[in-house]
Every structure is written in C-alpha cells, then in structure tokens.
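thread: overnight batch results

M.L. [08:02]
morning all. the overnight job finished for the chain we discussed friday. pasting input first so we're all looking at the same thing
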Amino acid sequence: MEQLIKKDPLTGEEFVAKRANQKFANAKNKSKFHNRKNAVLYKIRSPYEKRSRKSHLAMIALYNPKSENKFHVEFLKGKGVDLGAFNHVIKKPSGDLFCYYDYALKKTDNPDILQIIKL
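M.L. [08:03]
and the structure it wrote out:
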C-alpha cells in the first residue's frame, strides 16, 4: 500500500495521511485552523449581529400572542428595536417582512405603525 504524504494547512508540516480525504495532521490542528477562520468572521459580523440580537430580544419582550402587536415606530426604537438591523427579508404579496431571526416587522396602513409577527 502506497503512503499518501500531505501538507497540513495550519502548520505546513508534511504528514502521512491515514485516509485519502484527510487534510490535517491531527484533530488539534483541524480545530485550531477552523477556530481561527471563524474568529475572523466573528469580528467582521459582530457589530451587525449585536444590533440584530438586541432588536430580537426587544421583540421577544414586546410580542404578545393574544394581541395585534402593533406599535409606533418611535416606541419600538425606544424599546431597543433597530429598524436597520434586520437579518433577512421575506417577500410577500402583501408587503415585505423585515426579519430578526424568528420575528418580523410588517408595515401597516399607517406608516408610523409596525406590526411584530412571529414566524
């Protein structure tokens, strides 16, 4: 059986692979490589995620399944909802839903009033 020599992407060291699809010399190097890569992404995303998470928590606190959940824009802002920090948009025939994880803001007939919807 022929030995497969590969180069570890983290350390650059050469090693004998035990499997054809093995990329790292050991599990420790694999974890360290991916943790470093994710740390870079976390730093980039952090300011946006923080605003989105804060808004999400405010919506959780405000949402009541037994009410219409319609609030004035200024009230929502005062409670910590950042109207520019949504993390995705759902296109609906009735209008776009600006989503914060599992909650969304929906426009109403009155432009100063928004409705919180649980997805």
